[in-house]
Amino acid sequence: MPAQPDYTVNSPDGQIQVAFSLDESGAPTYEVSYKEQTILEPSRLGFVFLSDPPLNMGFVLKDIRCSTFDETWEQPWGEVRYVREHYNEMRLHLQEESYLKREFIVVFRLFDDGLGFRYEFPEQPNLTDFQIIDELTEFNFAADHKAWWIPAYREHRYEYQYQRSPVSLLKKVHTPLTLETAAGLYLAIHEAGLTDYASMVLAGTGKHALECELVPWRADADAVKVKAATPHRTPWRTLQIAETPGELITSYLTLNLNEPNALGDVSWVRPGKYIGIWWAIHLRHYSWSSGPNHGATTENAKRYIDFAAEHGFDGMLVEGWNLGWDGDWYNSKDAFDFTTAYPDFDLEEVARYAREKGVRLIGHHETGGDVLNYERQMAEAFALYESLGVNTVKTGYASVLIDGAEWHHGQRMVEHHQEVVELAAQHKVMLDVHEPVKDTGLRRTYPNLMTREGVRGMEWNAWSQDGGNTPEHTTVIPFTRMLSGPMDYTPGIFDLIYQGRYADNRVRTTLAKQLALMVVLYSPLQMAADMPENYEGHPAFQFVIDVPVDWEETLVLNGEIGEYVTIARKDRHSQDWYIGAITDENGRLLKIEFSFLEPDVKYVAEIYADGPDADWETNPRSYEIRQEFVDRGTTMKLELAPGGGQAIRLRPAAEGDL
Length: 658
Description:
Strand content: 25-35%
CATH class of the largest domain: Mainly Beta
Radius of gyration: 25 Å
CATH topology of the largest domain: Beta-galactosidase, Chain A, domain 5
Shape: globular
Helix content: 10-25%
Number of domains: 3
Largest sheet: 10 strands, antiparallel
Low-confidence stretches: none
Oligomer: single chain
Mean pLDDT: 96
CATH architecture of the largest domain: Distorted Sandwich
């Protein structure tokens, strides 16, 4: 069979091009270039099935269709209010020349900030039920780029600090995977619209190519990755392309590759800040389990609710209220009862008290990885919360394996999380998912899917044997983990040096950096994680009170992966802007301009800065608060201490300020 000519599609601005071709054997490949610079060399496509012949060669092109789409849609909440969805699409309908005549479609969508492609299996007589054991999708880079990565198939899921190495040294890694080329381009590989399929990890080849590896159904020798029937379609495989690291953060490619809101009226979905009986448990001041040190008591919950109401917090999280926390719940089967409280916690009374105070009570469903137990109870559990006016639930899946056999990220758990988000929506409940399947933009389709953990977050500073997250960690995750979506990192710790489980436990930042993280690390449900007694009477707490969680616009003013980043966000409900700047273990002088401000308007900059003697290691509590007038012509220098940061509120000056 002679090779067929390339079929190409360009991004709307003409800078990105995909070329698709069939080689002499009829095997499909694709290439990607940016401004005529090769990004991906010919990379293969196709599938291997458990019982059917492979679907990877012997194809002819049955049909090709190209189209253009350009609309702007409004997020009910988010990093920005309006998102432009502008792409050129190429649909290639392939059919085997063999007697089976099986078909599949490869769809490419090119945006100005990257591309997505997926496979579609139409209904057909010779491909009905099928089991995928390998998706052959390849990312064959033109060179051995620098990559920031975390390992796959490990005990702590996505909860690792990022490492950096050439692509050729990668083994099996999670996405998003962020890369930097020698020419100064920034790339990120991920996926979008993950439903009814296994999540994708990337497997190194020892060269500068990566292969798609689907997470299997079971963590043993079972080779099946996906069980499906036609018609069926895969998630999108995504490639972001940017000339600066910050452009990766402000790309909404993943969101744009998801379906529009499927829930209809979502006026009940409301972002907010919350506090909780959480950090004190991690520090062992309280326990999840019952007894004299139990944290989730009626009295304690009311004390936290009073603090939330006094300072304008939207919600208060209670962990450890329900039966199941006694003993070795992490390794126990059927440990948790999701509707029965411990005797010292009156759920109905606490919910009533929260409503009276204008605070939302945030419920908690920790499964311990016993998903079968949760699935038996979750309909009744969500109905109970709805009856009490509890409209937000934090779920948890803290375990190495699910039900003792499944990875957290295979098709089984993708389907489970889909069932949970749909059930939660029926009861008008918002979700904060811990130990999740990674975010792939489904919040566009299901806006109640607010935020996820899926990161080595603040809790590791309380009890990890390595002493906690490095100062560099939070300068990497905005360019890696946060590319997938909102992240419940739980910033806002003021007591930075404390008695943790181990002598080296502490938070390795300055106090000013903790404030800045509330801007830099985006979550529509943002936790001020410290205990109320550590906030009381603290002047810097004003920024925690003021900073919003729902944004009109987001800008990245500067940044280098693993070194520093400065992000500015405009409040959706006022004319105020907020800025967060953070650095790694090195002190740094950054310069920012305010050209994004409204013309002819003077602003008051309320600045929360590292003190002149601040240092994450020796003097993390040193900070200063000052005010300056700025306008769009102002240039400001930000002095960041080692492990430090700076947080700024910009509000239009009132008559009394001038």
